[in-house]
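User: I'm putting together a teaching handout on how multi-component assemblies are represented. Below are the sequence lines for each component of a complex, exactly as they appear in our records. Could you produce the 3D structure of the whole assembly as structure tokens, so the students can see both representations side by side? Please keep the chain order the same as the input.
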Amino acid sequence: MSSNIRIQKICQHCGKEFEAKKTTSKTCSDRCAKMLYKANQRTAKVEAINTETQRIKTQPIEQLKAKEFLTVRDVAKLLSCSIRTAYRLIEQGNIKAVNIAQRKTLVKRSDLDKLFEQPQPVKHEPEQIQFEIADCYNLKEVQSKYSISETALQQLIKRQGIPKLKKGWFSYVPKAVIDRLFTQPTKA
Ligand SMILES: [Zn+2]
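Assistant: Of course. Below is the structure of the complete assembly, with chains in the same order as your input.
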């Protein structure tokens, strides 16, 4: 005995109301069924692409750092610059790159690191001179002896890297160094 219940449904593709034979029917016709299937396939594809894009975009930088060879896209990402800028750096020879095929440029990770290996300026530590307070002037003494302002003296000490001893409120500088500095014959 067949059921006489009529199932009225809305076609998920064309939106038309139709009489369904099964409760699971989604479309009014075979044609709409095919179209709906295609549309769903397309949506799935787009979603997959978007997911992949998202994955690449959020791929941890650490992962890139571990790679031995980088694409220009990777380089741009590591340098936080545009792909165009990355290409320019390569064109200008700032980054060494190899064209392994047309439109396929690879950069060696270690070559990218070289971009940042600027020669470090050699820091000159002030000469370590052993001296005692007995052999020193305090700053006030230097100021009055050589008629120099406190500011000028402080700058001079800093600029010349003059060793300074601190004791309590006072700073002391070696007499020998100061006397030599102020009595140096001025060049004609
Ligand atoms: Zn339909």
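A couple of points students might notice: The mean pLDDT is 85. The CA atoms of residues 61 and 78 lie 7 Å apart.
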